[in-house]
Amino acid sequence: MLSSCAFIQAGKPALVYAAGTAGNSPANNAITGHIYITAGNTTTQLTSKAGDYDCVSAVCLEGKTYIVFVRYENRCNTIVVKEGIPSGQETALTAAGKFFNPQLAIRGNELAVVWENRENGGSFLEYSTIETGNFFVTGPRLITPQDQRCYCPSLVHDNDRLVLGYEKFDGARYILEFRSLAPGQDDFSHPVTAGMPAGNDTSVTLFAAQGEVYFAWENSSPIDTDYTWVEQHTGTTLTFPAFGHGWRIRGSIGVGKLTGQELTVQLIEYPNGENALQREESCGQPQVFIVHNTLFLLYMKHSKGNVWGTRLELYTGNGFEETAMPLVLCTERTAPSMVIENNTLHMAVKQDDAACGLVSYRLPAADSGARFSAVKPYVQMPSVQPVRGTIALNGERYNLYWGDLHMHSNISLCSRHPRFHCSEVYDKHRFSRDVGMLDFDLLTDHDMMNNIEWQATRKAAHLADTPGSYVSYVGYEWTATAPNYRYHPYGHYNVLYLDDGPLYRIDDGWHDLNKLWAALEPGRALTIPHHPGEGLWCMDWNYFSPEFEQLVEIFQVRGSYEYDQCRMHPELYGRTTTKNNSIQTGLQKGYRFGFTSGGEHEGVGITGVYAKELTREGIFEALYSRRVFGSTIPNVFIDFRVDGVIFGSVNNHSGPHTMEIAVKGSSPLSSVVLVMPDTEHRITTDDKNEYHYNGPAPFAKTPEWVYLRVEFRDGNTAWTSPVFFDLA
131-135, 213-217, 354-358, 427-431 — which is least confidently predicted? Predict the structure, then answer.
């Protein structure tokens, strides 16, 4: 994960990049690196102190090079600007905090820097100006309101003004906004909007040429309204929602331009009459530029070997057509930094974790003749909020929070697939918070990740974690089963740390589950197994830890593992299973654990918890206490108790038993089912949206455990953790 910026220095292409290495011991994974500049055949180290540097941006003004970058230290980011020589002046533009994605541009004889400020749970844009002679900093000044969520600024200078593009979350999806800063003004203009009618508009880039500003962006959708499964036995179509961190494969790319002082938005017209470029591959991260009246589009596409490649197309009368530029392969789905020199495209390419270089391609010529047309007014889409609620327990109030404890990014090879892709690790948490409307998450990429990727995972979680607003945990997926695997097939376990912890890789000698549990600290870590009855990657129920295995995932994208041939079992959707290895198999062995529901790639499962506060400690206490339920939707409130003992807890009452049930959903219920060993008690709810009961329990003999399954008429389902009984 290497950050770079290509630019023109003294009429020639140059490259500034941040690179480093990470320790290879479980306890030492911090990145130590530097910022370098390469001009011609010479590479120079610009920073004197080794550290974790990222998000570099560079320009050349009056013969001097200036760079801006992020320095990460003590779980905080600081924005720094520096002259591009080892002994050059350097100053911090921000204090240490949650600052991201600085963009540097020339404004007259000054520099302007725009960045994100994610303090206090928001995400707004600020900017400062720097006088290059004395390095005097003015600002920061606010660009967007502090109560908005704006991200990923792209900044260019267009003659005598600055033009800014960025993503804004409007409460339901991401859209694009653009502003300008005229000469002599201190405040950016009011925003204009652009984008496609639906989906999420992201990854906007700008290019100024010939007195106009061109822009490109990608549009993709979480797998929600169009992600359906059809039960082969009943023919029932089930639509499962996704919560923002899984993206469908079909990508659209938009290209437009901004004209006039008012930034009038126009989109390119394709021969089919559409304003979007459709591609079957997992395409995105586009960049547009124009050279000698030829319009070019550079973007990322999925390639063989689960990697990404850069494709270059040019616009002709028949639309965009691929050029002869060879595919440049990348391991990250991130747009390469590029710069144009005369008729040559220069792109930054990662050579290894510690070096970066430029590749060049001579651009062909063609008269694009591209036509642009005015866009339709932006229409805000309705926002569907998760169900919220509180319960009283032992005289205290507990809030219902929603989260996902099983998510992948593009670090995991299983996420880089011709049929789907996930987001990069840096975007995962904000997608989940915004589009998914989650309250907490755990990113669980597989333990095969390298040290740089592990450090990026830890860093992203710490920066996303904002007590009282959003909780993000550090963790990974301990992966101890695979076809023809050389170690014992224990299963797949998501390791969750209360605060932080090491990466214990299978291939580094941590392939014994008991050894893993012995290395973890009780009360500060969880190991959550998933898809227990999967055909190839099942778990081994002969191993169980009451200290670390308080939870097991009951449902995810493969289906439900409640019991063999259960409602929504994986075989209905073309998956293979291992018989007698379900959730109920573990319960029948006498193990005590609660239920979660996870998203994995596509994001089709969600977990509800009742916690006192939205902090790492508050959510962890709820997870450890099993005050948790799994669901296919976030639109349900459940409170289930036996003798006043809430689900997940141990009941010491001998009977007769009483029972309290409170269920409220946003769609009609079909049944509320009490599930006990070897039996079920079904309650018909008459298609109402809620059900309440307070009275005698419908079992004469005390069971070992009982949990509630809530079935909706539309096929969605939720499962509470069991109430366990102490029969001794």
Answer: 354-358
pLDDT in tens, 436-455: 889 999 999 999 999 999 99
User: What is the Cα Rg of the chain in Å?
Assistant: 27
Q: Distance between CA atoms of 117 and 553, rounded to whole angstroms?
A: 35
Q: Are residues 225 and 257 in the same domain?
A: yes
Contacts for 701 with CB less than 8 Å, ≥ 6 apart: none
Residue 398: inside a domain: no
Residue 367 has pLDDT above 80, yes or no: no
CA 706 to chain centre: 35
Q: Look at residue 570 and tell me if it is in a domain.
A: yes
On whether both 613 and 708 belong to a single domain, the answer is: no
| Range picked from 300-314, 320-334, 413-427, 508-522 for highest mean pLDDT | 508-522
Strands 212-220 and 42-45: unpaired
- Tokens representing 690? 């809620």
pLDDT value at position 226? 46
CA distance 576 to 482: 14
Tokens 């928001």 correspond to 122
CA 281 to chain centre: 20
- Percent composition of the chain: helix, strand, coil (DSSP 3-state, to 5): 10, 50, 40
Residues 6+ apart with CB under 8 A from 625: 550, 648, 649
Same domain as 653, residue 591: no
Verify that 667 and 597 share a domain, yes or no. Answer: no
Residue type, 67: I
Q: How many residues does the chain have?
A: 728
Contacts for 614 with CB less than 8 Å, ≥ 6 apart: 399, 401, 439, 440, 467, 468, 469, 470, 471
Where in the sequence is the domain holding 707, given as residue range(s)?
636-728
Half-sphere exposure of 118 (CA within 13 A, CB side): 24
Arithmetic mean of pLDDT, 561-585:
91
Q: Is the pLDDT of residue 690 over 70?
A: yes
pLDDT at 225: 46
> The pTM is what?
0.94
Indicate whether 642 and 627 sit together in one domain: no
- Burial environment of residue 479 by CB neighbours within 10 A (0 to 12, 13 to 18, 19 or more): buried
Instruction: For residues 533 and 450, state if they share a domain.
Output: yes
List of residues 6+ apart from 235 with CB closer than 8 A: none
- Average pLDDT on 324-351 reads 86
Final residue before a domain boundary, out of 602, 634, 666: 634
Instruction: Single out the residue of 726, 713, 718, 525 nearest to residue 640, CA to CA.
Output: 718
Q: Vertex 218, ends 216 and 220: CA angle to 5°?
A: 165
pLDDT band at 281 (very low <50, low <70, confident <90, very high): low
In the chain, the N- to C-terminal Cα span, in Å, equals: 55
